[in-house]
Amino acid sequence: MAFALPVWLAVQEELLGHGDADFGTSSCFDDFDDEALFQMFHLTRSCIAFITDAVRIRMWTVTQDKPTSPVDVMVMVALNYYAHGASSVAVLQRLGSSLAESSPTIIGTISGVIAGMADQFISFPLTRDAKASVASRIKKVCGIPDVLGVLAPAHFKIRASPYEKNTFRSFVNTLGYTSIVSQIICDSDGNILSLEKCCVGSTFEQEMWDTSFRGREIEKELHGPYWVIGGKGYHLSKHVLTPVSEPENDSETRFNEAHAKIQDVMRTTLGSLKRRFRCLMQLGFAQETSLDKKSNIIKACCVLHNIAKKFSVPPPPAAGKIEPLHPGKQHSASEKIDPEALTARQKLISNNFTLVSSSQDPSGNNVTEEDRG
C-alpha cells in the first residue's frame, strides 16, 4: 500500500504550490489537547493534520468542490462521527446551530472525498518485490508460503424497515441480523490491501469473490502463483486456500491450525477498524437501491485505518470480546471440488506441514528416515 510519508510530502508541496491560506495556520483541532483529541477522534494530532491537508488538496484538484465551510471544520465533523457514530456535544457546540444542522451533508461530502482517496491508500501488492515481501511476512506468522493476503467478508450492521418484507429479508445475513457486506483483503500487519463491494447482508462471500475485480484478477493468474487465505464460505481454488473440512492426519491438522492463525489477523483487523470507527458498529437505515452513502463511509474508514497504521496510532482499547469472523455459507460435502486445486493444497501441506519421522538408535540419538536410507 502507499506509504504515508511520501504522500505527506506530496500533499505539502501541492498546498504550498497553490498558496493555500489555511496551510500552516491555526486549526479548529487546536482547541483540544492531545488526550481530548484522541478521545474525540481516535486519532493523533499529526495524523489528523495529514488527513485534513490530504482532503483539502483533493477537494481542490480532483473533486473541484468549493467547500461550504472551512475544510478543517468539515473534517472535524466527519472524524467525530466516524469515531462515535454521532456528533459529540463538544463538537456541536463549536459548530453553531446552522453548521450543526448541516452535519449529515458535511459527513456525506467528506466521506465521498476520502473514499476517493482509496486508490492511493488501499493498494494491493503489484510488483514482484512487493508480493514477495507480503508473502514472506505472512509465512513468518503462520508457515504457509506464497500467500498475498487474507480474504473475508466484512459485515456492518444496519437498520432496515421490517414493513418492506422482501427488502428486509435481503439484508438479513446468516447470523440473523441485518447488515451490508464488503469484501476485504488484509496483510499480516492488518493493513487493508483491497476493499470492494457494498452488498446486502444476504450476499454470499463466494458470489462477491466471483464478481469482484480483485477476484477475477487473481483467479486469472494475473498476480502469479499466489494464494489468498479464505474461510469455509469460499470454494477451494488454485488461488483461494481454504481449510481442510475434515482433517485426516496430523499434517492436515497442523495446516488448519496455521490457517486459523493467519485468519485471526483478519478478525483482529476488523475488530480494530470497528473500535476506532464506531460508526461501523451501526450504520443506520439503509435501502437496497441506495447503498452508495454507506459504501463511502466504509471506504473512508478503511482509508483512515491504513493512514492511522502508517502513523502508528493505536486503536482505542477493546470494550469486550472482539467480534468473530462471519462464518459464511457452509458448503455441502456433495459440492464438486476442483481436483487441481485439491492437489495443489495437498502438495502445499505435504511440503510444509509434514514432520519427518524419526526413531532412536541404540545410543539414544534421533535417526531420521534419511539417515536410515
Descriptive notes:
The strands form two sheets. A five-stranded mixed sheet has the order 3-2-1-4-5, with helices on both faces. The chain has a two-stranded antiparallel ribbon with strand order 6-7. The N terminus and C terminus are likely disordered. The chain has 16 helices and seven strands. Helices cover 50% and strands 10% of the residues. It is globular. With 373 residues, it is an alpha/beta fold. The chain has two domains: 95 residues; 202 residues, no CATH class.
Q: Give the helix level as a range of percent.
A: 40-55%
Number of strands: 7
Please, how many helices?
16
Radius of gyration: 24 Å
How are strands sequenced across the largest beta sheet? 3-2-1-4-5
Shape: globular
Question: What characteristics describe this protein?
Answer:
alpha/beta; two-stranded antiparallel ribbon; disordered C terminus; 16 helices; 2 domains; disordered N terminus; globular
Short structural summary:
With 373 residues, the chain is α/β, with parallel strands linked by helices.
Secondary-structure topology with pairs:
Layout: H1 4-18, H2 34-41, H3 45-63, H4 71-84, H5 89-95, H6 97-101, H7 103-115, H8 118-121, H9 128-142, E1 147-157, H10 165-171, E2 179-186, E3 192-200, H11 205-211, H12 213-219, E4 227-229, E5 240-241, H13 250-276, H14 292-310, H15 339-353, E6 358-360, E7 366-368, H16 369-372
Parallel strand pairs: 1-4, 4-5
Antiparallel strand pairs: 1-2, 2-3, 6-7
